[in-house]
Amino acid sequence: MENAAPQAGAAGEKRPAGLFARVLRRVFPRRAGLVAGSAMAAAVLTVAQAQEQVPAHWIAYAQVTGNALQIRLSEGAGELITRLHERLRERQQGRAVPLPVVVRIWISSEGWVVRSDFDSLGDVQTDADLRAILSAHPLPEPPPPDMRQPMVLRLTLQPNPEFDREPKLTL
To answer: In Gene Ontology terms, what is one molecular function of this protein (predicted)?
Structure first.
């Protein structure tokens, strides 16, 4: 378990440590208001408080982007998608709940995912396939010009039971 004691931040400010605080600082730097009053008490914002301080258009864009990427990962055909789904089936065996993946993405002003970062899915090829799928096509719209990056999304990667390994040609 991580230590939740405050750490010294930029300009000597005190900031709480821990995964949640680090994620909020990375997604919403200087906007989330994560400041500790003293070494004994750290003020950590709840998700609702953090969302109140994030512009609504950033949240809306993150939702659109998350939905677009979920669709991209669950539909389609080809070698990358097939391999990813096969690996996800193996990864999911014996688990009732799909494992979420926290993905940090950087998006160009044209809407392309130009970089992605996440914890390994278990092997180099699966990680490379996920990165390639995330960056294969532009997103439905570019990010707001004032939006900070990287965007942090929690994706649920699960095998699609209706996924057809060998798509049928329709005329």
So the answer is: DNA binding
Helix intervals (H) in the chain:
19-27, 47-53, 56-74, 79-92, 124-134
- Beta carbons within 8 Å of 2's beta carbon, 6+ residues apart: 17, 18, 19
Per-residue pLDDT of the chain (171 residues; tens, 9 = 90+): 444 444 444 444 444 455 555 544 554 444 333 333 322 333 344 555 555 688 999 999 999 998 898 888 877 667 888 888 888 777 777 776 667 789 999 999 999 999 999 998 888 998 999 999 999 999 999 999 999 999 998 887 665 555 555 544 444
Cβ atoms of 131 and 116 closer than 8 Å: yes
Domains in the chain: boundaries = 6-53, 56-156
Instruction: Please indicate, yes or no, whether the overall pTM of this predicted structure exceeds 0.85.
Output: no
Cβ-contact 156, 163 below 8 angstroms: no
- What does residue 114 show for φ and ψ, rounded to 5 degrees? -100, -15
